[in-house]
Amino acid sequence: xxxxxxxxxxxxxxxxxxxxxxxxxxxxxxxxxxxxxxxxxxxxxxxxxxxxxxxxxxxxxxxxxxxxxxxxxxxxxxxxxxxxxxxxxxxxxxxxxxxxxxxxxxxxxxxxxxxxxxxxxxxxxxxxxxxxxxxxxxxxxxxxxxxxxxxxxxxxxxxxxxxxxxxxxxxxxxxxxxxxxxxxxxxxxxxxxxxxxxxxxxxxxxxxxxxxxxxxxxxxxxxxxxxxxxxxxxxxxxxxxxxxxxxxxxxxxxxxxxxxxxxxxxxxxxxxxxxxxxxxxxxxxxxxxxxxxxxxxxxxxxxxxxxxxxxxxxxxxxxxxxxxxxxxxxxxxxxxxxxxxxxxxxxxxxxxxxxxxxxxxxxxxxxxxxxxxxxxxxxxxxxxxxxxxxxxxxxxxxxxxxxxxxxxxxxxxxxxxxxxxxxxxxxxxxxxxxxxxxxxxxxxxxxxxxxxxxxxxxxxxxxxxxxxxxxxxxxxxxxxxxxxxxxxxxxxxxx
Length: 495
Description:
Blueprint: E1 11-12, E2 16-24, E3 28-35, E4 40-47, H1 55-69, E5 79-85, E6 88-94, E7 99-100, H2 101-108, H3 113-132, E8 145-150, E9 154-159, H4 164-170, H5 187-190, H6 197-213, H7 223-232, H8 238-241, H9 249-258, H10 270-278, H11 298-311, E10 316-318, H12 320-324, E11 342-344, H13 359-369, H14 373-386, H15 391-403, H16 407-420, H17 428-436, H18 444-455, H19 460-469, H20 473-488
Antiparallel strand pairs: 1-2, 2-3, 3-4, 4-6, 5-6, 7-8, 8-9, 10-11
Helix pairs in contact: 1-4, 3-6, 3-10, 6-9, 13-14, 14-15, 15-16, 15-17, 16-18, 19-20
């Protein structure tokens, strides 16, 4: 484009000011903008006008935009608004500073296997959430993965452009050939067949291979030749392509399974793929390069917290708000050393007595503690569907969702557990998890309302701890405001 960009300086529907163009792609242009009244940075993606050139095109755009807005996870960049400006449809997303994985590879070269696995597991965490919403990405590649650093949590990756591949397919812009990026397309996509969630897992396998080896497994002179290799050629083993990378046999086997030609021979879900990666030697069982917090039982976790408190004397506990720091972090990033976040305040009120977990729930908690959190969550979700009145199932889901920092899901699970068994409102773990959710820009309001309406003064110790020691200033402010409101009402739950 030559000359001044006519979009720069315009205000969209009195809500978003367009500031500068930052990227150009096959589907449109991306601009940095700001929410006018809040001054908050946003990214605005304008799609080509042809995507809304007809009533059918506009309906498709609205359907896909609404679907994209359901994706709300720490490892995804969500769509927060959409509209049409002078014939061009646009999507509004969180503005996430950082580098794409393509830029990362260009700047740093291939990655150590442990770091590559940590990145892949964060991608899989985001995909697991999206697939649970019925959304398949269809175009996972380094250009669509942002890499940034979250203070207190280290490296975080976030997936861009959920739903756009589907929109591109529906808009029938091409000659009818398979759509996608040839280097990352599953065999079924190269044949123009419908792609389900297992196509995303195949692309993640390609991505992981590239991060470790520095090159994709299938390379040829033309896109059609690359697509043929996806269909017909077995992938080269990682240890053969990168013999000096120190890749374990277990990791090589995981990548080869992800790249199986038949979808039925791949991992059945993103969670299963992630669990398989977690079991490889590349994942440090003590935290190291793991992209998720080490799974452990609630009893073990509580024991760790109390042991840390005992080091500095009676009456001290560890504030989970300080452990988890600011914002929605990648699922289970390892916390800092406990000694760095220990603080003193009055002992917590006594917990209410609740019955022990029944055997089926206890087995699933043990499964999560052994590293199978994703599978345990899925099993508990099935039990919840079959028996929605089982309070202990909602409670266990709240525990596991909170461990993964899926705060909106955790809040709803705790809400149901408390409705079915009010004693859960007097469980320290519930108070800690809900206070930790105050770090989430999306979920803090719901967490505050549940604390205020159901927990009352029981949550004051955790609120005081977060108000004093949370790294995120927004979280400290939210905790202090809620603490002050509860103190003003003597801690009585709001009606």
